[in-house]
Design brief:
Elements (H helix, E strand, L loop, with lengths): L2 E5 L4 H12 L6 E6 L7 E2 L6 E5 L10 E4 L3 H13 L3 E4 L28 E3 L3 H16 L2 E10 L6 H15 L2 H6 L25 E3 L2 E2 H14 L5 E8 L6 E9 L5 H9 L4 E3 L7 H4 L5 E8 L7 E7 L3 H15 L1
Parallel strand pairs: 1-2, 1-5, 2-4, 5-6, 6-7, 8-11, 13-14
Antiparallel strand pairs: 3-4, 8-12, 9-10, 12-15, 14-15
Helix pairs in contact: 1-9, 3-6
């Protein structure tokens, strides 16, 4: 008998977790849902029938085997330990435990073996890191990665329902006056989630500034990549950009290795790697990635200024492989 809990079930990622559990016919005998007090008592549909959402703060975790957490860092820090104390393995989607040396940071199909070292909590990487690691991981296995320059183009759903609503609202407000948009006379539509308008715009500072002009999103890309690949000295130059896209994160990356790699070799390696589709005849876009499990990789080219490296473009559904799917895949490793 396996009991699975989805914590943060009413959020974008939590709902996606529920659908993926159903799609993959996850072998759970019982399913429990939890969220904040304001959602407690509501009923949600699931593949096992309608379920009542429990109040996370009051929830008794006894009997839960696996808990998929997507409730935010503060709630994870508060509640994940008590789930572990009750006997559950927590797979956490927040940043709360990612850099804890005692917590494995796992990208399924890249470093599965790390999951075996858990002590009750396994962390899910940031959605941008996840997309990039699916492409970089197999190449690293073939020729050890030495350096990485990565620029992400991140969809607004990475900010949850609020990011999606802000983009759609601003699109309606600004899109009604195309002339002003094209001549500089547009009126500020009012930004709440982001510092500047996101509709018809690109914001080259995804995340919050933390040090030296870099954002927390950029530092996640640095620190998490090093931990996942077990390369503490990996040189990473990150830039994270927010774009007016609903779903699907893209990453343009330049990868340098300990030995020269050709584009043909990279295409061959990625073409047989699990969880990846290599697109040769056309360039994958965020829209192409929506609703599918695989990360799409295209524009694979050899580097020009310093031959022997690889330039590539990777896109993935940030709600699926970037969050919910990877959590479920980790749970499958445990099963």
């Amino acid at each position: 008998m396996t009991t699975v809990a989805v914590v943060g079930a009413t959020g974008v990622v939590g709902r996606t977790m529920l659908s993926i559990l159903a799609e993959r016919d996850f072998p759970a005998d019982r399913l429990r849902l939890a969220a904040s007090a304001r959602s407690a008592g509501h009923t949600m549909d699931s593949h096992v029938g309608p379920l009542e959402v429990e109040d996370l703060a009051a929830m008794d975790p006894s009997g839960i085997d696996i808990a998929l957490f997507s409730a935010g860092g503060s709630r994870s820090k508060e509640h994940a330990p008590r789930f572990v104390d009750a006997g559950a393995v927590v797979i956490d989607n927040s940043s709360a435990f990612r850099m804890d040396p005692g917590v494995p940071l796992v990208v399924a199909d890249v470093n599965d073996e790390a999951a075996r070292g858990h002590e009750g909590i396994i962390a899910n990487p940031n959605c941008t890191t996840m997309t990039l690691m699916m492409a970089a991981g197999p190449l690293h296995e073939a020729a050890e990665l030495r350096s990485m320059v990565a620029t992400s183009y991140q969809a607004v759903s990475g900010s949850g329902h609020q990011g999606v609503s802000e983009l759609l609202d601003q699109h309606g407000r600004l899109g009604s006056d195309i002339h002003s948009l094209m001549t500089g006379g547009w009126a500020d539509p009012g930004a709440q989630v982001y510092e500047r308008p996101i509709a018809f715009n690109v914001l080259p500072f995804a995340g919050n500034e933390v040090e030296g002009g870099y954002t927390d999103e950029e530092m996640k890309l640095v620190d998490e990549s090093r931990k996942i690949l077990d390369l503490p000295g990996l040189a990473v130059e990150p830039t994270c950009v927010r774009v007016p896209v609903l779903v699907g994160h893209g990453v343009a990356a330049t990868l340098g290795f300990d030995r020269p790699m050709t584009a043909d070799e990279a295409i061959s390696i990625l073409g047989t790697a699990p969880g990846i589709e290599v697109w040769k005849d056309r360039t994958p876009t965020p829209l192409d990635s929506v609703g599918i499990d695989d990360v799409l990789v295209g524009r694979i080219r050899g580097t020009r200024s310093t031959p022997g490296g690889i330039n590539l473009w990777a896109v993935g559904d940030n709600l699926r492989k970037g969050a919910a799917l990877n959590a479920v895949q980790i749970a499958e490793l445990l099963i």
